[in-house]
């Protein structure tokens, strides 16, 4: 009861305008456009203002509430927004981002022969596949959940058979229960050659030895020569261990698009930040409903009061929505300017080593915003620069000091670590202890556990797993 009371008190502390602004802050540009279109459809008081050429008989482009309700102190500017240039439908610079993996699988399910309960079961299995393309749950658990959630009685064998159908979808390897099955699915989908049969034999019968790089044992048990084993391993390592992590070129038309929320130009060393125009129409109070408000205000009776209440509610909603959009734009711009100021050297040429350690608190202090607000601003927002398109989250990282006392971004250290591993002798790969020494020689003093953590974050395996024949 105490917890419930506290939650209610907290919610009461936020005004409708604050709630509206918080919701709009998180939306990227394309979703914001959809949200505005939805608001126009659902709120009859909101209307798109015609251009000056379309205005007839001197009718005003916006209608002030004060014309109809003397007691309403809402200023007219809060009911009117002009957030566009002359081009009502500007062309965007759009960029492809990772396709919706599960949407892709559902589309392929639509082309399959599965019908009825089998299709429902297949869709449930697809929903259980993770973003890497693996089905991490066991078949028995899936069978129980299908009975409980879909009310479909089935058997583990039947679920397994439907899973086999999904495993024929693209990208090849999807729906595997583990890495071994994922790689085998990909090998078996290729044209069979002696080389691929040797690779399949290794995965089928000697996966543990392969994982531990016990190559001598594999050669002893299979009779393969060193060259045959090397070619087979080369075939395996070029398979995709994360089928959900990349999208085949045949699905480019399904790729989701992003519109940069900010555009940065470098003109002779001067950084110029702009927010691209998007099709937010000029909004005004719908005159028909404003007239209704005026007429209802002078009428008496129950129905007149109800009409006033309804239209007043819609007018308030319109006011809050328009003001929330303005606040969103101002907050985004102020936050991006603070990031630009903090990471000025990086934005000049895109040199990753010039990124300074920066956390949400740094930007919150520069802008005077709450940390949670900054977090909402940077979520799913992008900036277009001369050297690429970046999510705003890219510019945030922790920091540490070098031996010379300079503070550097952890991203810089990760880059140096990655380059050091890339340059190592693959026949004698560097251990984490040896990498500590290499980094120390380059001026970065880090502990072995820190090296291990960064290596794992970079998805780089331990030294033994990087060894080549």
- Radius of gyration, in Å, reads 30 Å
Q: What is the arithmetic mean of pLDDT?
A: 79
Main beta-sheet annotation = 4 strands, mixed
How many alpha or pi helices? 21
Low-pLDDT parts are 1-12, 51-92, 247-255
- Tell me the β content: 5-15%
Structural class: alpha+beta
Total individual domains: 4
How many β strands by DSSP? 10
What share of residues is helical? 40-55%
Shape: flat
**Strands of the largest sheet, in order across it?**
5-4-7-8
How far apart lie the N and C ends? 66 Å
Account of the protein in words:
The chain is α+β, with helices and mostly antiparallel strands and 469 residues long. The protein contains 21 helices and 10 strands. It has helices spanning 2-12, 16-25, 29-42, 101-110, 116-128, 139-149, 156-166, 179-189, 194-205, 207-211, 215-222, 226-237, 287-298, 302-342, 344-349, 360-367, 371-378, 410-422, 432-441, 448-457, 463-466, and strands at residues 46-48, 95-96, 257-258, 262-267, 270-274, 283-285, 382-385, 388-391, 399-401, 407-409. A 4-stranded mixed beta sheet has the order 5-4-7-8, with helices on one face. It has a two-stranded antiparallel sheet with strand order 1-6. Strands 2-3 form a two-stranded antiparallel ribbon. Helix 5 crosses helix 7. It is flat and about 100 Å long. It starts with a helix and ends with a helix.
């Amino acid at each position: 009861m105490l917890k419930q009371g506290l939650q209610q008190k907290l919610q009461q502390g936020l005004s409708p305008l604050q709630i509206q602004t918080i919701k709009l802050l998180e939306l990227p540009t394309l979703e914001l456009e959809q949200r505005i279109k939805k608001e126009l459809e659902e709120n009859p008081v909101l209307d798109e203002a015609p251009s000056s050429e379309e205005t007839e008989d001197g009718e005003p482009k916006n209608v002030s509430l004060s014309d109809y309700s003397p007691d309403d102190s809402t200023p007219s500017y809060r009911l009117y927004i002009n957030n566009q240039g002359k081009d009502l439908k500007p062309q965007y610079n759009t960029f492809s981002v990772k396709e919706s993996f599960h949407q892709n699988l559902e589309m392929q399910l639509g082309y399959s022969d599965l019908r009825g309960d089998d299709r429902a079961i297949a869709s449930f299995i697809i929903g259980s596949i993770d973003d890497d393309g693996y089905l991490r749950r066991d078949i028995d658990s899936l069978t129980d959940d299908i009975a409980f959630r879909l009310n479909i009685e089935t058997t583990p064998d039947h679920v397994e058979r439907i899973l086999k159908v999904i495993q024929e979808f693209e990208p090849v390897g999807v729906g595997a229960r583990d890495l071994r099955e994922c790689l085998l699915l990909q090998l078996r989908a290729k044209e069979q050659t002696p080389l691929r049969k040797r690779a399949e034999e290794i995965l089928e019968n000697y996966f543990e030895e392969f994982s531990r790089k016990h190559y001598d044992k594999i050669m002893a048990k299979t009779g393969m020569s060193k060259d045959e084993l090397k070619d087979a391993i080369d075939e395996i390592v070029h398979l995709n261990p994360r089928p959900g992590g990349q999208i085949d070129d045949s699905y480019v038309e399904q790729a989701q698009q992003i519109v940069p929320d900010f555009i940065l130009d470098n003109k002779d060393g001067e950084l110029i930040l702009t927010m691209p125009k998007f099709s937010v129409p000029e909004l005004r109070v719908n005159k028909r409903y404003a007239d209704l408000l005026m007429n209802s205000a002078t009428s008496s009776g129950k129905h007149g009061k109800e009409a006033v209440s309804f239209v007043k509610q819609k007018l308030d909603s319109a006011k809050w929505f328009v003001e929330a959009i303005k606040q969103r734009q101002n907050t985004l711009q102020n936050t991006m300017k603070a990031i630009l100021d903090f990471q000025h050297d990086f934005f000049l040429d895109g040199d990753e080593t010039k990124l300074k350690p920066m956390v949400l608190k740094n930007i919150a202090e520069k802008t005077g915003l709450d940390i949670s607000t900054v977090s909402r601003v940077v979520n799913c927002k992008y900036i277009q620069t001369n050297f690429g398109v970046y999510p705003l989250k890219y510019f945030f990282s922790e920091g540490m000091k070098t031996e010379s006392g300079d503070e550097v971004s952890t991203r810089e250290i990760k880059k140096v670590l990655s380059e050091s591993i890339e340059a190592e002798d693959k026949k004698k790969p560097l251990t984490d202890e040896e990498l500590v020494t290499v980094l120390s020689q380059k001026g970065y003093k880090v502990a072995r556990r820190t090296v291990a953590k960064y290596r794992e974050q970079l998805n780089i395996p331990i030294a033994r797993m990087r060894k080549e024949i």
